[in-house]
Prior knowledge:
Low-confidence stretches: none
Shape: elongated
Largest sheet: none
Strand content: under 5%
Amino acid sequence: MLALVSWFWAASxxxxxxxxxxxxxxxxxxxxxxxxGALVVGNVLALVRPPTQLPAGxxxxxxxxxxxxxxxxxxxxxxxxxxxAVATLTS
Length: 91
């Protein structure tokens, strides 16, 4: 999938596609996009659907909701990373 995305960006920017390996010059930007997106999606899903099952080993511990402040900070950092990556990939 990453190779297909990198080929698309290389083809649309006019770079030579044959010499690029796994994103070539856009690899760092694509990785920032992936990590930022994972931060956003993971933390939003943790807030929307917190764990409901007990941990496997200990039945006395109740499921823990993720801290709201930490989740909001991570969503903000991930959003900034996604915006930066999309802006640099499309410019």
